[in-house]
Amino acid sequence: MHTLLPTSTAGSLPKPSWLAQPEKLWSPWKLDGEELREAKQDALRLSLQEQQHAGIDIVSDGEQTRQHFVTTFIEHLDGVDFEKRETVRIRNRYDASVPTVTGAVSRIKPVFVEDAKFLREQTRQPIKWALPGPMTMIDTLYDAHYKSREKLAWEFAKILNQEAKELEAAGVDIIQFDEPAFNVFFDEVNDWGIATLERAIEGLRCETAVHICYGYGIKANTDWKKTLGSEWRQYEESFPKLQQSNIDIVSLECQNSHVPMDLIELIRGKKVMVGAIDVASNTIETPEDVAKTLRNALRFVDADKLYPSTNCGMAPLARSVARGKLHALSAGAAIVRGELSA
Ligand SMILES: [Zn+2]
């Protein structure tokens, strides 16, 4: 990356109201068939343009082509029955009705590769593509086949690696794995969570990132955050092993969060996507708010490794709010860039 402090988002952006009901997770599509296929591409173009107008350096599809960051990927796999549903507790936080793993899981066809090719055709900027991480995938399913979280995670890691290699071939510059589960299951993270993530990136030459956050600004997450106390030290559990891993970039939640910034010291040497935009609030940060968070982070990460970003995806926000936040991110990064070059 040539620009200092290249900006990006953690992933999702709001969908237009003609595509799906806004400000809602798992919002059903409003169209189908060929109309839906075209509408998703139109939304992707729109989302890309919003990022470009805001001056975002590393762009994405805004996740316009998927209903949800985990389930849409799983829907394309063999071995999972979406009709057979069980209620499970997701990330020890809320109950959800989830599909059942009924047989060996496999990827029968590419999932996002055509969408990534389409995005690649639209821009010469660096592009980032998000996939769910193995641990977060298993946590969103009922497993009646392997009956082992670890075994299923290894199977998903192999599948993710197939998809990631094809995304790389399609011209994706950074492949990001979303692992909010890394903030919850600390023993598993260290026993096999990071190992399965490394299996998912095996043999890739493009850059790789892991996004570890405290989730979207939905009620189940904000209620959970209230139980975490005044200092959130969850990252302390996974960072030492992540620092030793082959992952290039770690994406974190830092804006308005109770994460002590000095924990970033534990991943010294990695590139860090610092969340400088709060996605759980409709208040649009000022550029100075963003700059303050970035300056704070610069005490623990070298300037050439600091990537200003958002805490998490912005899918549940109003479009005007998300747009304002994109502009604030860009303007805040510009302030600090100016200070660094002065
Ligand atoms: Zn997130």
Low-confidence regions: none
Shape assignment: globular
CATH topology-level fold name: TIM Barrel
**Average pLDDT for all residues:** 95
How much of the sequence is in beta strands?
15-25%
| N- to C-terminal distance | 20 Å
The radius of gyration computed from the alpha-carbon positions, rounded to a whole number of angstroms, is 19 Å
What structural category arises from helix and sheet content? alpha/beta
Question: How are the strands of the largest sheet arranged?
Answer: 3-5-6-7-8-9
Number of domains: 1
**Largest sheet data:** 6 strands, parallel
- In DSSP terms (H or I, runs of 4 or more residues), the helix count works out at 10
Tell me how many strands there are: 9
CATH architecture: Alpha-Beta Barrel
Q: Can you walk me through this structure?
A:
There is one protein chain. The protein is α/β, with parallel strands linked by helices and 342 residues long. The chain has one domain (33-341): TIM Barrel. 38% of the residues lie in helices and 18% in strands. The chain contains ten helices and nine strands. The chain has helices at 33-53, 71-75, 113-122, 134-138, 149-169, 186-200, 219-226, 235-244, 287-297, 319-341; strands at 77-90, 94-107, 128-132, 142-143, 174-178, 207-212, 249-253, 271-275, 306-309. Strands 3-5-6-7-8-9 form a six-stranded parallel β-sheet. A three-stranded mixed β-sheet has the order 1-2-4. Strand 8, helix 9 and strand 9 form a beta-alpha-beta unit. Helix 1 (33-53) packs across helix 3, helix 5 (149-169) packs parallel to helix 6 (186-200) and helix 6 (186-200) runs parallel beside helix 8 (235-244). The model has no long low-confidence stretch (mean pLDDT 95). The structure holds zinc ion. Residues 10, 178, 180, 211, 213, 312-313 line the site of zinc ion. This is Methionine synthase. GO terms for molecular function: 5-methyltetrahydropteroyltriglutamate-homocysteine S-methyltransferase activity; methionine synthase activity; zinc ion binding.
